[in-house]
Amino acid sequence: MMDKMMRGGVAALAALAVMAGGTALAQKVKLTAYTALENDQLKIFKDTIEKAVPTVEISWVRDSTGVITARFLAEKANPQADIVLGLSGSSVAAFAKQGLLEPYTPKGAADLKPVFRSGANPETWIGMDAYLSVVCFNTVEGGKKNAPKPMSWKDLTNPAYAGSIVMPNPASSGTGYLTVAAWLQIMGEEAGWKFMDDLHKNVAVYTHSGSAPCVQAAKGERMIGIGVDMRGAREKTAGAPIDLILPKEGAGWEMEVSGIVKGRPNVAAAKLVQDWVASQGANELYGKYYAIVAHPAVKAAPPNYPEGADKAMVKNDLDWMATNRDRILAEWNKRYDGKSAPKN
Amino acid sequence: MALAEATLVKPKASSDDIVMRAGIAVVLILLALFVAAPLWTLLSKSFHNADDKWVGLDNYIRYVSTPALMQSLWNSLWISLLTTAIVVPLAFVYAYALTRAMLPGKALFQAVALIPILAPSLLPAMSMIYLFGNQGMLKQLLGGGEIYGAGGIVASQVFYCFPHVLMILVTALSMADQRLYEAAEALGASRWRIFWTVTLPGARYGLISAIFVCFTLVLTDFGIAKVIGGQFNVLATDVYKQVIGQQNFEMGAVVGLILLAPAVLSFFADRYAQKRQVSLLSARAVPYAPKRQRGRDALLFVFCLVIAGLILVIIGIAGWASLIKRWPYNLSLTLANYDFENFDPTGWGPLWTSLKMAALAAAIGAIAIFTAAWLLEKSRGFHLVRNLVQFLATLPMAVPGLVLGLGYIFFFNSPSNPLNFLYGTLAILVINTMAHFYTVAHVTAVTALKQLDAEFEAVSASLKVPLPVTFVRVTVPICLPAILDIFVYLFANAMTTVSAVIFLYAAETKLASIAVISMDESGFNAAAAAMAMCIVFVSLATRLLHLLLERTVLAKLQRWRKR
Amino acid sequence: MPYLEVDRVTKRFGMFTALEAVSLSIERGEFVCFLGPSGCGKTTLLRAIAGLDPQTSGTIRQDGRDVSALPPSERDFGIVFQSYALFPNLSVADNVGYGLKSRRKPAAEIKARVSELLALVGLPTQGEKYPAQLSGGQQQRVALARALATSPGLLLLDEPLSALDARVRARLRGEIRGLQRRLGVTTIMVTHDQEEALTMADRIVVMNHGRIDQIGTPEEIYGKPASAFVADFVGSMNFLTGRVAGPGRITLGDGLAIDCSHTMTPGSEIRVCLRPEDVQVRGITENTANRFPVTIAELEFLGSFCRATLRASAPEVTLTADFSINLMRDLNVGVGKTLDIALPADRLRVFAGEAAG
């Protein structure tokens, strides 16, 4: 009787072991890529990469920027990713700082705009594209309330928008932080906090995700969302009644970049992919989704995207953003979160 | 002449004792490996800084000095208490109706009530937004209020927790001794008095468990609070902010440790309740057969109808949303949202992965957890080890999935860990799921076991029948309904689990529940609803299979319950 | 050599002592009852003998073998619990055959043995039923058959009849006793019902507060209780307070001196016991010792006899006496009537007074 139970247990363990060892071995080099690219971009990116680099097969592990970053850092003792491709520049820069990336200057890196390069020699990461923190304005909901279309950040403090604005919480979302940091940089600290005090009166909710605000605006859940641009552009393309606005003071932005992970067996194959990342062809692909790409020769024209993204980008001091992060978040929490008695 | 002092007796362990102790030791090792060690790995981070230097209580001091803490703590406590105060009485009445009254369509009522367990926790929150959001169909019912905040959290949590609590209470109420009731009636006790003196005390152990399960479920869930919580901060979203928002594992571990407090509390409460539990189903016991009481039955029927109706509405809304072209501006129907490849290149793959993972976790888990509970309940001596096992079995309930998931990374992904080979496989998802949902399954098993006659093992020993034989021939058949319940519970949770596995899935092992989250976050809300509905359908199909099994095979095996 | 020897067995639960150096021995084939109020330690002693809750110290020898430290499965006994602990999911036949099956006996042999046992307990046709389909008395017999199936050397019965109604209980008493005689199996039964113990046992072990007060045949226990507790617990008993006057003399109540053999020192407080049926009414003459007049205060009709409450003024005592219907008629007994009674010296038992005992 005990025998039988033991055998059952052994069989179960064996089954687990088989599952454990069961990762199929393909002839191609399989590269695990950690990414925060949009879900709907993954297939075309994979197909294009595999066409350009026939010896590799890309396996995506895709999640939101925060989850992927947390996961990568948690795994740093024994990295599971071969490459991080399409993750926010600040995350990857932090990886590089901790020495987790394999330095490599891909072919054609020199052709890219300087800001899209790590600046190290050899390069620790390569920029792909940039996205901005913009205003998504739902024209239907605006019309119902007879609210004007905002053109600048300052406009958002108009009492007509009371309880109608949604933006990401900088403590939960990278987009939230870059938005807040940009305000403090373009307005100066004192005016920046003053502006946020006024804005706070109109904010209905600080979300935990940077993509949620424009999606909520697109669904009419809120009139105005402050969030990632391409999310808004895509919603508009899909038929949502929203306008994207690049506030005239300029907007915070963030890059998506790619870096090779140190200490993995397939570094050589990853380098081939990194070559592709820096290529003009790749940049043409980015240009279908993002208004700003790394390669100066590529004319990026995503559908439903407002003109002038280039000019709207504020001068971003990444070092300042990184060193002041704890201080800014603490101040932000104190002002808007610590006393956040629900408004309802 | 003084008599020599009588010799002290050192009882010799029987072969049964040895087998059972070995079994318990194995259970302890497994729980230590898959629950304690990962948690410890993470929690030790709360005493270190980002550079892995020992900083003592610095992180705690920093956290306590954050003004948001007390607010989050207070918020977490009162919504957990409020939800518990709403769910437990509702579920008790519902369970009472299912077990003690004569209602038409009981099986259907039970099936409907368990649907929420089949749905990702995101689903009720989504439905709430469709119903009461700013564009919601019933927004005017809120009279200018907002669904985002405590109200939305509690409403969604009630829906989400209801079946978890119901399951425990049905088990607790379904084993009752008819004779107690006959005796009470013969003594002329009123129905109300019988309820207070027989029914309620009999279900006390289950009730206490249910209260703790519900409380900790609400306390540790961050999915609902994240989507519908709005400005309302709770401890679980604090963990999310620290870990996901700022990659601050140390502070995440600090909050995680605070969240563990209820586990410790429930462990002692459990001990206390256990001491007072007397077995109800002795062999002489006559299984309870409900009798018709027109007035009461009619009331209960209406009650169940309302609850089941509400559950169906919430599920139905999500189902409807999954078929809508563009909420709220274009309400025409389409199946396009089910064409998952358009939203995520893995397409339908995650659903099959989930199915495989859930089946394995449920099958291995139901057998292993029930056996472990039996070893714990029926072995003699070995107190320290048994107390440890009992504690580790109660622990997972209170561990936020996020904390457990991170612990798994740090523990299993360490290159020096010989179990490192598990990392990134389906196996680790199976193990993690069993560990994460261990407590309720364990409580269900223990509740069922406690209702058996305590002398079965003594009789078995006197007849020189090895205990494992009695386990297979008597204990398992009597507890088969509870074991199947555990299977269904683990299966459904494996299909919907998110927070723990979000860090553990690999490219090939992406789960459907994770696809729901990622599609929702990408703004494909309808596709997310569609995937959520697929999860519901798969789990529903399993449940129907279970029901069918119950009606045929099980009915045959359970003939002995009939008088 | 006795079949079962219990030598200075002590059982402690933390600070509480449930058994205090209990010793006794039981002969092969004997039917022994452990009798006492609840909490006296009788079930604890039974469970120690079974090995279910081993004693803290002391020795238990069964059939010449020291079993003190052995687990239940290595001892030789069958047991029937108050709850019967029948396996509800197994048929009656499977319950009875439960212990046989694991001994790898051929199926036909098991079947034959099961039918034999079911016939033995008077349930020859119930083998296919499940326990829940049987009455309490029937379940009890199945439990007995199951315990006997493996022909154990020792049969342990833990309050086996207490859950049954009076009629069934009375019938089963006889049946169990008869069965035990036929099989000759050494049997220990725990009970709190003195009538059960008196009618069934060869010997009774009366227990109180974790100690044995008396071991003896039912006649000895009834007729010569060794302590006031035993006297009180078994049967009805009159207790009269008094004082030792001298050798062979005591004074009752406020002063009546009577004859009585005792071993107490003069002047000590005592309690004097007498069974109601031993109060002498007939044949009393001037010369009858220990004689005094009483008035009948109450009469309780109990079928074949009446229990009378008697009041005396000198000494001022109240006591009960059982009068047969015959005697009632002969003496024309009725409430209010005064008559002379005597307390037969050889029936009186003397124990130390309340304070000492």
Report on the structure:
The complex is a heterotrimer of chains A (344), B (563) and C (357). Chain A has 344 residues and is α/β, with parallel strands linked by helices. Chain A has two domains: 2-130 and 255-293, D-Maltodextrin-Binding Protein, domain 2 (3-Layer(aba) Sandwich); 131-253 and 306-339, 3-Layer(aba) Sandwich (D-Maltodextrin-Binding Protein, domain 2), CATH 3.40.190.10. Chain A is built from 14 helices and eleven strands. In chain A, strands 1, 2, 3, 4, 5, 6, 7, 8, 9, 10 and 11 form an eleven-stranded mixed β-sheet that branches. In chain A, helix 6 (174-187) crosses helix 7. The longest helix of chain A is centred in the N-terminal third of the chain and has 20 residues, at 2-21. The radius of gyration of chain A is 22 Å and the shape is globular. The relative contact order of chain A is 0.17. Mean pLDDT of chain A is 88; it is low at 1-11, 13-26 and 339-344. Chain B is an all-alpha fold and 563 residues long. Chain B has a domain at 70-244 and 261-278 and 285-321: MetI-like (MetI-like fold). In chain B, 69% of the residues lie in helices and 1% in strands. Chain B has a two-stranded antiparallel ribbon with strand order 1-2. In chain B, a hairpin with a 3-residue loop joins strand 1 (324-326) and strand 2 (330-333). In chain B, helix 14 runs antiparallel to helix 23 (525-557), helix 15 (349-378) runs antiparallel to helix 21 and helix 15 (349-378) packs across helix 22 (512-521). The mean pLDDT of chain B is 87. Chain C is of the alpha+beta class and 357 residues long. Chain C is 25% helix and 33% strand. Chain C has helices spanning 42-50, 92-96, 98-101, 107-120, 136-148, 166-183, 194-200, 218-223, 228-233, 325-331; strands at residues 4-13, 16-26, 31-35, 57-62, 65-66, 78-80, 154-158, 186-191, 203-208, 211-216, 238-246, 249-252, 256-259, 269-274, 291-301, 305-312, 317-324, 338-342, 349-352. In chain C, the strands form four sheets. A six-stranded mixed β-sheet of chain C has the order 6-7-8-3-9-10, with helices on both faces. Chain C has a five-stranded antiparallel β-sheet with strand order 13-12-11-14-19. In chain C, a hairpin with a 2-residue loop joins strand 1 (4-13) and strand 2 (16-26). The longest helix of chain C has 18 residues, at 166-183. Chain C starts with a strand and ends in a 5-residue tail after the last strand. The model of chain C has no long low-confidence stretch (mean pLDDT 91). At the A-B interface, helix 1, helix 2, strand 2, helix 3 and strand 7 of A face helix 12, helix 15, helix 17, helix 18 and helix 21 of B.
